[in-house]
Design brief:
There is one protein chain. The protein is 75% helix and 0% strand. With 206 residues, the protein is mostly helical.
Length: 206
Amino acid sequence: YGLEEMIALGRIRDAAGLQGFLENEILPALANLELPYLRFCQEAARDKDVDGLLSLNEEISAWKLTREVREAGQAQGMQLMRMIREIYSDEWADCIASKLAEQGDTSQQIVATGLLRNLQGVPLESSLVAWTYQGVSNFCSASIKLLRLGEVACQRLIASCMHPDTLKPLIEQAMEVPRERTGWFNPVLDLASARHELAFSRLFIS
């Protein structure tokens, strides 16, 4: 998701740099893009809005501007959809999977997560908190190898991002963003993500 190239470019050099990256670039992107879309998907699943969920899937794919990020979301989404169909007996979830297959399309992870959380009866705000934790912890886990940060340093970063003073306004904002205003553009991170595929050397394979 661009972190390895951001470090290679010297944009992130240490724990303080990673904290600034998370707070100034990743959390705002979550609040304005991914969390609102997760909200829309879980609400569409609750309302059994097939066309709405398929439309959201297309929008989410279009917002993923680099191939690696888009395909990663699709791979994770389809894996989650398979798990949902194996564990939960739900005709409507099966209908979504069938519609996607008919269109030759694949489910983005956010769409599959919205379906799953609805089936589990998870409150919407709790879903958004869990998605935020997942996003932050993924970057911190990767930084153990990329920046040679220790586990304690990573847990401090996660705790800082998940502190109520940071998290509460983030979730409140995500709950209020209307669909027509949903979006976030970060060309530096998109370019870093695009460069990763063709990097001379890399630690992570996307």
